[in-house]
Amino acid sequence: MDRHERLNALLDMIGQRDKIDVDETAAELDVSPATIRRDLDHLAERQLLTRTRGGAVASNVAYDLPLRHKAARNAPEKQRIAVAAAKLVERGMVIGLNGGTTLTEVGRAVATRPDLGERGDSPSLTVVTNALNIANELAVRPNIKIVVTGGVARPQSFELTGPFATKILDEITLDLVLLGVDAVDPLRGAYAHHEGEASINRLMVSRARHVAVVGDSSKLGGHAFARICATNEVHTLVTDTAAPDKTIEAFQAEGVRVITA
Questions:
Q1: What is the pTM of this model?
Q2: Considering the chain, what is the average pLDDT of its residues?
Q3: Which residues, including other chains, have CB under 8 Å from residue 69's CB and lie 6 or more apart?
Q4: Tens of pLDDT along 102-154?
Q5: Which H or E run includes 58?
Q6: Fewer beta carbons within 10 Å, N or C terminal of the chain?
Q7: Phi/psi class of residue 133: alpha, beta or left (left: φ > 0; alpha: ψ in -120 to 50)?
Q8: In angstroms, rounded to a whole number, what is the distance separating the alpha carbons of residues 112 and 224?
Q9: Gap between the Cα atoms of 259 and 261, Å rounded
Q10: What pLDDT is recorded for position 73?
Q11: Other CB atoms within 10 Å distance of the CB of residue 151
Q12: Residues 6+ apart with CB under 8 A from 227
């Protein structure tokens, strides 16, 4: 386990347990207590947790890790999933992208598709997004028209949320929405940790002709705090090959096309 993976593990642990002890955590991660102390001090400096005597406690952002600390988690799987999801995009489409690490990879995969890179009299693609980081990356692509929703930015995910974000989405129609989620279940549907993000994502779903949920196998099963949409509103699920066969079959039984990469 390298340092980046260890930092992610520590944030996960404190998010689940609210507090952790240095010696116990060192034994669990098979490193020295001194290493854990340095890691906790590093995270505390970034206000991702609060140091205590002998350990640390959760801060107000520990439950929802900032994007830069999540980026390396399941990275190879996310890149394969992104390439598969990008294949759903056709030239001339209007597509919606929400935020998150997986959708950031999807945006990159779409932007680098050679057939979509050809310049013409009109944009090869229109992308509607509420994610500032995705808009920033795609804005330099002259072949892609970028539409950014309004709203208030969440520093954890770079997503714009709130009533200002709904004004644009109320006025448009999407051919395809590629939706990153915190959890998706065959019976319960798709979920997000934050209710504001779930609300904007729900509106994207309602404006789309085709809804594709994009997430690695760790997102399958269970649920998060706020539901985005029911399973019968999802047309396609793009995930990785580690997804259990029973879970895939459960989605297919609900009428969802499953693509594994």
A1: 0.75
A2: 89
A3: 7, 8, 11, 48
A4: 999 999 999 988 888 777 778 899 999 999 999 998 998 888 999 999 999 88
A5: strand 55-58
A6: N
A7: alpha
A8: 32
A9: 7
A10: 55
A11: 20
A12: 188, 189, 190, 191, 198, 202
